[in-house]
Amino acid sequence: MSRINKNYIVRAKNLTKRFGDFTAVNQINFEVEPGEIFGFLGANGAGKTTAMRMLTGLLKATDGDAHVAGHSINGSPEKVKYSIGYMSQKFSLYDDLKVYENIRLYGGIYGLTGKQIRSKIEDILEELNMTALRNKLVRDLPLGWKQKLAFSVALVHDPAVVFLDEPTSGVDPITRRSFWELIYRAARRGVTVFVTTHYLDEAEYCDRVSIMVNGVIEALDTPQKLKEKYHARSMHEVFVHLARKEQ
Amino acid sequence: MRTILFILQKEFLQIIRNKLILGMLFLMPVVQLIILGHAADYEIRHINLLILDQDHSTVSGDLVHHFKASKYFDLLPAANKYEEGLEQMQRGEADIILEIPLGLERELNRGESAEVHLTADAINGVKAGLGTKYASRIIYDYNVERGRAAGGQIITPIDLRYSNWYNPKMNYATFMVPGILVLLLTLVGAFLASINIVREKEMGTIEQLNVTPIKKYQFIIGKLFPFLVIGLMELTIGLVIGKLIFHIQYQGSLVIVYSFAVLYLIAVLGLGLLISTLSDTQQQAMFIAWFFLVVFILMGGLFTPIDSMPLWAQKLTLLNPIRYFIEVVRMVLLKGSNWMDVRWHFRSIFIAGLILNGLAVWNYRKTA
């Protein structure tokens, strides 16, 4: 087992989730290489979030397994957690804590030393241009700022892989752009980024993209190859082609 | 251990910033104690008594006078017919009707026994029960007095004298305040703690914690400890109010009371935690907590003495944590009971805490 895992930071094998009669994720298989920006696309209800929740240990798999950062999500889910960061679709930092208090809290939970926490706070505030907002309650920040802060907090313990669930939903195009700059910067530092989205222009920014339709992965490749394969000019056309085929 | 400190720091910051919770924490004990302490009184006064005196004699006049002198009865204007009296009772104006039949004096003077008739409106059972008791007592006293006046000693039966131990002046605040304190602590534990945890579920913030390697016990201790502290603060505020406003003399050791309060809070916090694991929204948590609290409070011995419940209900109260705390607080604060006297209570609440927290931890899931 260890040999395969060395090459892949995430490797799903027949990963399945059933809710009663409904199969949300149906035996999906894929690998993610270290340092990749891996896009996870699909229409609403295609199973992206469910798959991601299984990989992050928030949801138990009905069947199959996945290895994340070398650990099985079934066998040792708590070990997986040291190596991953997660940013949920719904903003989930504490509204009634200040900006720096949120960073300090998660730094502390991940076991950073006091000194590490202090320097993380400074680094993050600087990277996000939020030094002046350090003592502001998070609830008073605009959504775009909150999202960026959530992303940085997900990375506070320098995880090997970070899972982003529709991180840019609901923010304006300019903020989306600067958010993707943050993603690139993290990727350059060697963090693997696993991101779901339904903005198809964002799919073009990914190294590889998988497209889920009704619980299965219909296509998985680089944006360039996918466009060639489906004779499409954009990822949008690829997506429409695959999604329509299903109906 | 360090992780717990970070969680604690967060919890205290959030509590301090929540004006509503702070207000509830400090206003609730003050308002409840002061209002309930003064208003919750078991003694019944102002019983509306209607007298139907058909005898119109010296004897009946004397008897009526005795009732007038009593502090418990308010006399209504006299009526002439029993039916009239019943009508007034129907309208809710008369609580008790005393009917003195024609010929009372004559029969008594002949040395025969005579009857008077009491009719009580038993819609309010407590008022009816106590009212007829007071009335019988007055009639009995009158009998004794008449007997003495007549020079006969045989008529004087056993003379009862009462003395109320541990609450010599029969001050109801003394009796109620310790009980209300218990309710306050229960509210903090079962309500506030469960709502606090469920709020994290509702807001989605708990997900961010669940993807971290935080241990269940770290999260739970971090969540429950602040409410333990708050509960003990409420207890302190309550004890001070009891002393300063109600002038209750605390007889026993406060160390026992605080020690028991800690165990008690752990038990009810376990209940709160269990409720939070069973609910997804704050509303659900409120309803479940409410269900338990109403049963616990009504069966806790604060409003109804446990001794007067049917045997099966008495057995049921053994499962009620409120019961133990109310007994301990009353025994220790009012009677001065010591550790040995309440060791059974300590054991029971400790077991309750183990079971409730065990169930809660077992039912708490980081993974759905």
Protein traits:
heterodimer, A: about 250 residues, alpha/beta, Rossmann fold, 6-stranded mixed sheet, 4-stranded antiparallel sheet, 10 helices, 10 strands, disordered N terminus, B: about 375 residues, mainly alpha, abc type-2 transporter like fold, 2 domains, 4-stranded mixed sheet, 14 helices, 4 strands, about 65% helix, elongated
Write the layout of secondary structure elements.
The complex is a heterodimer of chains A (247) and B (368).
Chain A (H helix, E strand, L loop, with lengths): L1 H6 L2 E10 L2 E11 L4 E6 L5 H8 L7 E6 L2 E2 L4 H7 E4 L11 H11 L4 H14 L15 H12 L6 E5 L7 H16 L3 E6 L2 H4 L4 E6 L2 E6 L1 H7 L5 H12 L1
Parallel strand pairs in A: 3-8, 3-9, 6-7, 7-8
Antiparallel strand pairs in A: 1-2, 1-4, 4-5, 9-10
Helix pairs in contact in A: 4-5, 4-6, 6-7
Chain B lengths: L1 H16 L1 H21 L7 E7 L4 H12 L3 E3 L6 H9 L5 E5 L3 H6 L7 E4 L4 H25 L22 H32 L1 H6 L5 H29 L9 H25 L3 H17 L12 H6 L4 H15 L7 H21 L5
Parallel strand pairs in B: 1-2, 1-3
Antiparallel strand pairs in B: 3-4
Helix pairs in contact in B: 1-9, 2-7, 2-9, 7-9, 7-10, 7-11, 7-13, 9-10, 10-11, 10-13, 10-14, 13-14
Describe the structure.
- The complex is a heterodimer of chains A (247) and B (368).
- Chain A is of the alpha/beta class and 247 residues long.
- Chain A has one domain (2-246): Rossmann fold (3-Layer(aba) Sandwich), CATH 3.40.50.300.
- Helices cover 39% and strands 25% of the residues of chain A.
- Chain A is built from ten helices and ten strands.
- Chain A has a six-stranded mixed sheet with strand order 6-7-8-3-9-10, with helices on both faces.
- In chain A, helix 6 packs parallel to helix 7.
- The longest helix of chain A is centred in the C-terminal third of the chain and has 16 residues, at 173-188.
- Chain A is globular.
- Chain A starts with a helix and ends with a helix.
- The two termini of chain B are 26 Å apart.
- Chain B contains 14 helices and four strands.
- In chain B, helix 3 links the parallel strand 1 (47-53) and strand 2 (73-75).
- Chain B has two domains: 2-40 and 170-363, no CATH class; 47-149, 3-Layer(aba) Sandwich (abc type-2 transporter like fold), CATH 3.40.1710.
- In chain B, strands 2-1-3-4 form a four-stranded mixed sheet, sandwiched between helices.
- Chain B has 368 residues and is mainly alpha-helical.
- The radius of gyration of chain B is 28 Å and the shape is elongated.
- Chain B has helices at 2-17, 19-39, 58-69, 82-90, 104-109, 125-149, 172-203, 205-210, 216-244, 254-278, 282-298, 311-316, 321-335, 343-363, and strands at residues 47-53, 73-75, 96-100, 117-120.
- The A-B interface holds A 53, 56-60, 77-79, 81-82, 84-86, 88, 90-97, 101, 104-106, 108-111, 137 and B 2-3, 5-7, 9-10, 13-14, 17-18, 203-205, 207-214, 366-368.
